[in-house]
């Protein structure tokens, strides 16, 4: 499966671009380490990339660039805010997406990329459907298969970090009181955690309820296992004050990392 490669120099960028055939969709994610939404987008892109197999020649190429470190490249693509996604094929910018909307990012990538050989054929010529009508591409997807793909994606997301918080909003801008309180609990315990804004992706929001068999948010996951919501986390800490200690960064003197 595909993964996201870090580009760290202008030379590395030029070498990577020149190595791609004209048919490859180049997916470029501009980020900054201080921007919390970029951590969420990194999780989204890593999960999406894993859904695309490695082919020869490559159908897709996934890279990420520190927008501040490589400002010349950022300026070339008019990157004024992060996260910022640029989709390129054969040197031409096909689409850009600014912000951390997972739905917009997924839709943009899927509209220009193909996961299967059939999809690639569709880009090069007519496809005959089961009904025998040339030029038509079947768009209906088996609901059970779609659910399985979603659950695989959710399985990756809940393991994206040792401690994962699925919340309404972001740690810097929670959109509900319970999410705000749980962020406070994690910060009070200096826990380094990943987060996902479920308001930015309704597919994740609805699917996680069934996947976790837990109907409300926020949800805290530890080592890929659901702990629960705010009340459950508080109960765990009341019964065991060291419940979150293995995930604390205090021992390393890096308390600021808890807000990442």
UniProtKB/TrEMBL annotation:
PROSITE patterns per UniProt: GLUTAREDOXIN_2, THIOREDOXIN_2
Cite a single GO BP annotation.
intracellular iron ion homeostasis
Identify the residues that the record assigns to the Thioredoxin domain, covering every copy: 1-114
Q: Where is the composition biased (Acidic residues)?
A: 133-142
Keyword ATP-binding applies: no
Which terms are listed as keywords in the entry?
Answer: Iron, Iron-sulfur, Metal-binding
Region of interest called Disordered, as start-end residue ranges on this chain:
115-146
GO CC, alphabetical: cytosol; nucleus
Q: Which Gene3D superfamilies match?
A: Glutaredoxin
List where Low complexity composition bias occurs.
116-131
Q: Which PANTHER family match?
A: GLUTAREDOXIN FAMILY MEMBER, GLUTAREDOXIN-3
> Which family is it part of?
Belongs to the glutaredoxin family. Monothiol subfamily.
| Record-given protein name | Thioredoxin-like protein
Q: Which organism is it from?
A: Chaetomidium leptoderma
């Amino acid at each position: 499966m595909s993964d996201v490669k870090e580009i760290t120099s202008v030379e590395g960028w030029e070498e990577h671009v020149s190595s791609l055939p004209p048919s490859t969709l180049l997916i470029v994610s501009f980020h900054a380490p201080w921007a919390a939404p970029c951590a969420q987008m990194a999780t989204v892109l890593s999960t999406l990339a894993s859904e695309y197999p490695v082919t020869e020649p490559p159908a897709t190429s996934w890279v990420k660039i520190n927008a501040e470190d490589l400002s010349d490249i950022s300026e070339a693509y008019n990157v004024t805010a992060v996260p910022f996604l640029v989709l390129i094929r054969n040197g031409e910018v096909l689409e850009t997406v600014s912000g951390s909307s997972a739905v917009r990012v997924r839709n943009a990538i899927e509209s220009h990329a193909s996961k299967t050989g059939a999809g690639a054929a569709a880009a090069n010529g007519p496809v005959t459907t089961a009904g025998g009508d040339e030029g038509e591409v079947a768009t209906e997807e088996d609901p059970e298969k779609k659910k399985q793909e979603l659950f695989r994606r959710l399985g990756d997301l809940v393991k994206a970090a040792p401690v994962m918080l699925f919340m309404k909003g972001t740690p810097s801008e929670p959109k509900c009181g319970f999410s705000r309180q749980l962020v406070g609990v994690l910060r009070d315990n200096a826990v380094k955690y990943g987060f996902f804004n479920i308001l930015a992706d309704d597919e994740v929001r609805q699917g996680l309820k069934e996947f976790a068999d837990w109907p409300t948010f926020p949800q805290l996951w530890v080592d890929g296992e659901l702990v629960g919501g705010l009340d459950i986390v508080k109960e765990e800490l009341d019964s065991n004050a060291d419940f979150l200690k293995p995930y604390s960064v205090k021992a390393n003197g890096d308390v600021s990392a808890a807000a990442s």
